[in-house]
Amino acid sequence: MLNLRARHAIPVYLAGFTLTNIGVGGFTLAVGLAFYQDSGSATTFGLLVALEYAIGLVGQLVGGSVLDRYSTLAVALLTNSVRCVAVFIGGLSLLLTGALFPLLIAFLVSAFIRPQYRSASFVLARQVTPVAELKRINSLRAAFLPAAKLTGLGTVALLAARFSSGVVLCVLTVFFFIGSLGFAALGRLPQGEQTESDSARPTSIGESWRQLGAALRAVPGLCVHLVLSGMPATVTALASVLVAPVNHWVDGGSYGIAVLDGGVAVGALCSITVARRLATRTHLVGVACALSVAALLLLASSSTLLVAGISFWLLGVATTLGATTLDTFLQVRAAPEILGRLFITQECVISLTAILLLPVSGEFASDRGIDFTATVYAAVSAVYLVVFLLSFLLLGKRLFGARVEVLSDQAPHRSAVPS
Known about the structure:
Blueprint: H1 6-39, H2 43-69, H3 72-97, H4 101-128, H5 134-160, H6 165-186, H7 205-218, H8 222-228, H9 230-250, H10 253-270, H11 272-278, H12 283-301, H13 305-333, H14 336-357, H15 359-367, H16 370-395, H17 398-401
Helix pairs in contact: 1-4, 1-5, 1-6, 2-4, 2-14, 3-4, 3-6, 4-14, 5-6, 5-10, 5-11, 5-13, 9-10, 9-13, 9-14, 9-15, 10-13, 11-13, 12-13, 12-16, 15-16
């Protein structure tokens, strides 16, 4: 495989990341359309989404230890390739036989390996990027993610108007395949963290999680860091869930869907410059939380498409600033041997938060209205803001600056030092 120079590795990585997420963004919708066309009910797909979260939690428990025990690039390439093959087989079976069972298996396989792929992709970003460039690449990742998923949704919507679900799914595999080729082209990591010690690698799943537990106990503020990292992803998921009910509330029609969905993506893209310049400023986390509160309160204040569009734009800005800052701090503070486990723990926190908060959003929106729903989630964002402020007052720079190392069971736990 080609050994790319550092200046080429970053765009190749971003290309693989973006193309893969176009496929991810379209896959869930394509599966939903296939099951809806078969059953005529959205309930079946709702159950599948719940099952996806449950399978994803199992994948998270296994994935962290796998990632830190094996090559990051190999894990990213293998998981993405397996997903590509599974989606293709599911789509081809649906196209040729009309059978949904292979597609269900592909859906569950994708749910299981998604946390492992996401964690590998996160660690890979750190490995191909010099520390000085982390702010830039994380801001681009945060901005490209909603844009890629929106592109995936649009691609499926356009294809579904003319072709069957089987054809749509087979087309989506092209994005996964080219994304995998991008990762394969990286070859040996040009900026890889080759200094990590083999002795620090866990030899079993049990040891892997014992090391993680020791790090969480030893480093002040690390648990708070991982909890706060759930804010951008939770708000992004909430925005996706609220698009349809908000559009109905403001009577936006098909144009309104584009304004709301596009607003998040445009907000993310507009905030790239700020995120790149300020991503190592601790206060930017508080700014992101405060912007989320303001955006949701603004959404609750008026039932016009203009106000709703501005609110979703602000949510895009807030999530990009928050994700860029928190991801950069985690990549800088964590030793390579434990970074994968930390990110997958963060993913677990996000999943549990989503399971707790998102299912009630539909009930709130239908029974109590969008204004009440937005106010409730503004209060949730305010809780994140309060947690940040109190933690920063108590810990100062140690909140995001204390170094996270792998602590052996035999060695005494030493305090991490500010980076």
